[in-house]
Amino acid sequence: MDRKDFIKNSLGFLGASLIVPKVLMSCNNSKVDQKSDCEVWDSETEGPFPTKQPSEYSRSDIKGDRTGVNAIIKIIVTDADDNCKPLKDAIVDIWHCDKDGNYSQYGGMVMQPTDYKSYNFLRGRQLTSEKGEVQFSSIFPGWYISRATHIHVHIYDKTGKSLKVTQIAFPEGKDSAVVVVNAAKSYGYTKGMDGYTYNADDNVFSDDVDGNQIAKVSGSLEKGFMIDANIVISTKNIEEFKEPIGGPGGPGMPPPDGKMGLPPGGKPMGPPPTEQQQK
Question: In 3-state terms, what secondary structure has residue 87?
């Protein structure tokens, strides 16, 4: 897809009224058939909360001290330039918010008043297997104002060269996992869906009309959920990821150094991680 013009979001409420929500699903089978098994995913912004020094977080268990509904995040990376074969030894970074909509490593700002700058929960890095697969043990993400439930992903080749920055969306509907989890007060999810931003209104996912970025979600509150995403990338035609919208303290504000796509300081990510998990 073409690079999004984020300015169009000023007309978001008008455009959203013309878009029908994509999915009405059971939370035990919250799955979306992608338009094509080999359609390259859209590139997206890293958002305002990218991981600082991601090479330090080579681990599969990313929960830290966070509580919530258990979730396994499984990502398979395939290469559209190689007949969508699995991409081995790719570096996959993920990060997402906790059940209350807060990110680690940030805080004390308009977007996130709660200060978690000294925490590193819900961030991790893994190398893909021969099957192109990584798995992370986490919790089901919460949400915050102006965004649908989502997971951030940054993929590099084995040398540390950036290949894709994107985001994973979730199925929606009255019985979807998003609705069920956010009603689970006994697990600490207290927001419900009041004020929730749906994919059709989201400034990242609103143009994903084919549902290409929507994960397959299955499971239950008691047993936890499996979040599956088959992310197709191009290792030859690498899109620039999108700049965030807004400014300091507003939606999409950049990280402290003002650069997107690189860690603070703007330097490359460095060598790939070892396979040893760091708790």
Answer: coil
